[in-house]
Amino acid sequence: MGIEAQLKEFSDFSITYGPLVLKDLAVLLVGLVAARLAFWLCKAQLPRLGMTPRSATMAGVVVAALLIAVTLTYCLRLMGLDPRLVVRLMLAVVITLVVLAFLLKPLLPNLPFKEGNTVQIEGLFGKVEATNLFHTRLKTFKGRTVFIPNARILGGTVVNFHFTPNLRVDLDVTVSYQADLGKAEEIMLRIMTEHEHVLPKPPPRFWVLRFGDSGVEISGRCWVPNVKAFRTKVECYKSIKAEFDRAGIPFGRARRAVLLQSAEADDPRV
Question: Which ranges of the chain have pLDDT less than 50?
């Protein structure tokens, strides 16, 4: 077959099937865009209705898969093919994937957190924004976005501040040796007890920790909801400073002893 015959055959094919192919491509493109948009809408809006971020992501995947399946079926019907064969093949693939996921899930390691948790990973303190099979995206409280490989997370130490509902807050203070410890205890216990986020059980406690170089080290300890821990600690410290100043309780100060010795005292000839 010569070149002219091949060009004529290609031209006839393009004239006959070209519009149909373009129409299929347009429908496929619209379907893929709609599936991606539906996925992101589910992931962003469903958590506002009370659904967990992981469940919202799974719902988005299901909706997107359904839209893609409908789009492919419609494209096959436009081309004059029997879509039932493709539907059966897709159902077989989905069932196989579900069975494999059910069987292999206990063998797969799980990350010790989920999206939205406040964590500390390798010295980085922030909130988990997203996770996938390869890395975790962490937004630190300094505004930086850090991508951490999941292999390093699984092999290291992770502190999850949302794993338990409550967290103990330690209010460590150093006061002067001349300070009235009984009065300091009364003030700190009252501040902790009256704070709106401090839990009544276990009750706030006061401890004398040690006699340090700068003064007596004391501590007030209370339990609060972990999402309120940082704010509670800051507010309690602010109240302790104001109350101690009002009550005349001095804070400890660093002291250093300097020994002066003349050169004559070091001279063995003197």
Answer: none
Query: What pLDDT is stored for residue 48 in this prediction?
Result: 76
Residue whose C-alpha is closest to residue 117's, from 79, 153, 71, 81: 153
Both tokens assigned to 218 = 């004391």
Q: What residues does each domain of the chain span?
A: 3-107, 118-160, 166-247
Which tokens is 166 given? 């409550």
Look up residue 53 and give its two tokens.
């971020």
Determine which helix (DSSP H) or strand (DSSP E) holds 83, and give its type and residue range.
helix 83-104
* Dist. CA 51–CA 44, nearest whole Å: 10
Q: Which helix (H) or strand (E) holds 242?
A: helix 229-247
pLDDT digits (tens, 9 = 90+) for 5-25: 555 555 555 555 556 667 777
Distance, in Å, from the CA atom of 20 to the CA atom of 146, rounded to the nearest integer, reads 47
> If 0-12 CB within 10 Å is exposed, 13-18 middle and 19+ buried, where does residue 35 land?
buried
- Burial (CB count within 10 angstroms: exposed 0-12, middle 13-18, buried 19+), residue 196: exposed
Rounded Cα distance between 220 and 205, Å, is: 6
CATH for the stretch 166-247: 3.30.70.100
Look up the CATH number of domain 118-160: 2.30.30.60
pLDDT digits over 30-58, tens only?
A: 888 888 888 888 877 777 777 776 677 77
Helix (H) / strand (E) element for 241: namely helix 229-247
Check residue 207 and give its pLDDT: 94
